[in-house]
Every structure is written in structure tokens, then in C-alpha cells.
Amino acid sequence: MDQYLIKKMIAFRKKSFIQISQETLVSLFPFFLLTTFAMVFSESVFSENGYINNLFSIRSWFPYFRGTGLALTNFTALTGGLAGPLTSYFSAKYTAGHYGRSTGTAGITAFVFSLLINSRDLFTRSLNDGDLTRINLPVNINLVVAILIGYAVGQIFRFSSSSDDRIVDAHYIYHPKSVRPIVQSLALAVLGSFLVYLGNTYNVFSTIGNFFSSLIVNRNNLWVILSNSFLRTFGAWIGNSNPFNDIPFVNDSYALDNLNYALKHHTTAGVPYLFSETNLYDAYGTFAGLGGSLALLIAILWRSRSTKDRDVGIKSIFPALFNHGVAFMVGIPVFFNFLFLIPFVLIPVVNSLIAGIMLYFRVMPPAVYPVPSGTPSVLYAFIGTGGSLRALAVGGLIFVVDVLIYLPFVKFNDRIHEEINQLDDEKGADHD
């Protein structure tokens, strides 16, 4: 049975689109790693409400606190915003390369395609000489869309004539036909930008966004919280970070009511909303990171035989501890990886369910207090409960459960890697 599953997984991974998607994600790893490091320092160290800042009073003794924080915030916004165009670039590059076409030209074309799609002023005003159209590049992106943009551009290059993707030949002779796939791609980008303009004008995208956001219902109900946890993590697994963002503490009416009750009565016992997003999902559902990514990282460092995966885990552990595991998730990769889909979406549900049972039997107090920004996920419950060791112990139990859930998948992933390496070695021997 195991050998059958391994063969199926290998056959699936060898499909061209899956190969291109995974190559794209792995190529994004150094950019995402740099961005997440900057995010940790921006949110936790050089922020007024940052966890490390509050812990060591950095603002009181570091003279360039505000300027450093501003630079880091802008840097993360810039590099994070470029994640979409970079994803399209790598996707187009690997798609064109897969079919023997010019990788560099296809990649740059997809990068410009992404900028045109995200242009705000292309159809709204004339630009003066030296102006650059305002481009909407949010940090929260949809990796699926970005990969598909690059894949479409790569396919345009694939179906063009073999001479169309050359700019110069070996004799440095310019080929006018090389503009054909570029013109076709950019024309499609302008058309796409126009459709985006119409969608924004008639509130199509805001309506769609509100619909998906409405799927996350904030109610004082355990089963609703569990379903929300599933939707959030599945949305993240497909690379979509927009519709299922966490509800901020100040916008969570149940969390605010619980906080007011605790401040008024000087106790968390008897809070009006025991099963809230803050008590379950924020404090325990993501105790080991989004989708239990930190638990997967620990499982890989503990038992994996893959040198590549262990290297990615070591490099990613610092930002992952501070709730920024996206670099780790593209480096493995976890996104679009069906092997890790089940534990990724299951772990937050299991965590929230365990926490709900523990709260019902009053094993630990509810997490009613706001936590500083950039607080490590493993400390959210401890700080949110006002320093309850029982909450920390329950969190530790949950973390162990998460690691144990991931262990068999990590071992199975090693077997797939070894089987692929063996097949590659045999293929190389045949060529010899």
C-alpha cells in the first residue's frame, strides 16, 4: 500500500504544472526568508507595541528606534509587495524552460505583466514624463494567481515559433520576430488590467471579497470556530492570505467583552464568551504556527533524513518562532503539497478542539488579555491568560501532539525523496 502511494505521489509531482509550481516556490525561499526576518524585527523589536520592545524597553535606550522601525516596515512592504511579480517571473521562467524556450525573456515579460495587472492608473489618468503609474502590490497575495500568470506567459512562449523567443542569435544578429510573444503577453496584461479596472469600478472584487470573508463567522460557538480554522488553513495552503486573515483583537467584540469582564471583576472565571476566536484559534489553534508549521519544522529537524529540508528548517526557525513561517512553507514546500495537506488543515482544528475541552472543564483560564505584536505563537496563551502556567502546559501538550501528527508525513516525504533520487540515478546510469 505504501509503495502504491509513493508511486502515485511521484507521478503527481512529475506533472509539468506541479513541477513548475514547486520550482517557483523553492526559488522564492531566499526572498521570503529575508522579508520575514525584517518583519520580525519590524513587528517585535522596533514597534511601540512590539513583544521584544516591551520586554527590554528598547525604545528607551535605542536612539534610532522610530527611524529603524519605519525603514524596516517600508522594506517589508516593498519586498513583500514584490512577491507577486517575483512569483510570476519564476513561474514563467520555469514554464518556458520546461518547453525549451527563452527563460529570461519569458520571466521578465511575466514580471511586467504582473505590474500591468496591478496598475491603478493605466485607465484613469494621463501620466507626466517621469511619472510611474501607481501599482497596487499588497504584501498579502494569492500565490495561485501569481503562478498562473507566469504559467500563462510561459505557455505563450511555448506555442510561439522557436525563433520568436530569441532576441539575438549566436552571431549577435537581431531577430524582429522575438517581440511576438512579448506583445501577445503584454496585450493580454493590458486587457486583464482593464477588466480589473472595471471590476473595481463596479465593486465586483469587493463583493467577492466580502462573500469569502463572510464565511469566517465570529461566534461564541466551538463548532463554528473549528470550521473557521479549517477554512483559514485551507485558504493558506493554496497560497491565499486575503479572505481568511485573523480578526484583530480590537475588532473582536467577544474578545473585548471578555476583557472588560476580566478587568471589572478582577478574574477570568465566568467570562461571557468562553469559546471565542481569541480563546481557541489565536491562543491554541495556531500555537505551533499557521497549520502547525513550527511543529513540522521541529519534526523535520528531529527525524527527517533530507539534507535540503533540514537546511531550510534551520534557516527558517527564527522567523517561524515569531509567527512568520511563510519562508519555511515555500522552501519545503508546504503550499500545494498534497502530502502535507491533511496535517496542515487538521492540526488547527485538533488544537482548537483540545483547547475547547480544556476550557470547558476549567483546566486553564481563558486567554482574554491582548498580547504585544510579534509575540511568539507558543507564548500567546501564556500571556493572554495573564501568565497561567496551566495554559502554558496545555499549549506544550498541544505542541507535542502537533509534532507527532506530522512525524509519519515527514518520514513518508523522506521515502518519496529517496525513491525520486533512486529513479534519477537509474536514469543517469542508463544514459551512461
From TrEMBL:
Name of this protein: Membrane protein
A molecular function (GO) term: protein-N(PI)-phosphohistidine-sugar phosphotransferase activity
A GO CC term assigned to this protein in UniProt: membrane
Species whose genome carries this gene: Streptococcus macacae NCTC 11558
Annotated TM spans: 20-41, 61-86, 98-117, 137-157, 178-198, 283-302, 338-360, 389-409
Ranges of residues in domain PTS EIIC type-3: 1-409
PROSITE patterns: PTS_EIIC_TYPE_3
Keyword terms, alphabetized: Membrane, Transmembrane, Transmembrane helix
Example of a GO biological process term: phosphoenolpyruvate-dependent sugar phosphotransferase system
InterPro entries for this protein: PTS_EIIC_3, PTS_Sugar-EIIC/EIIB
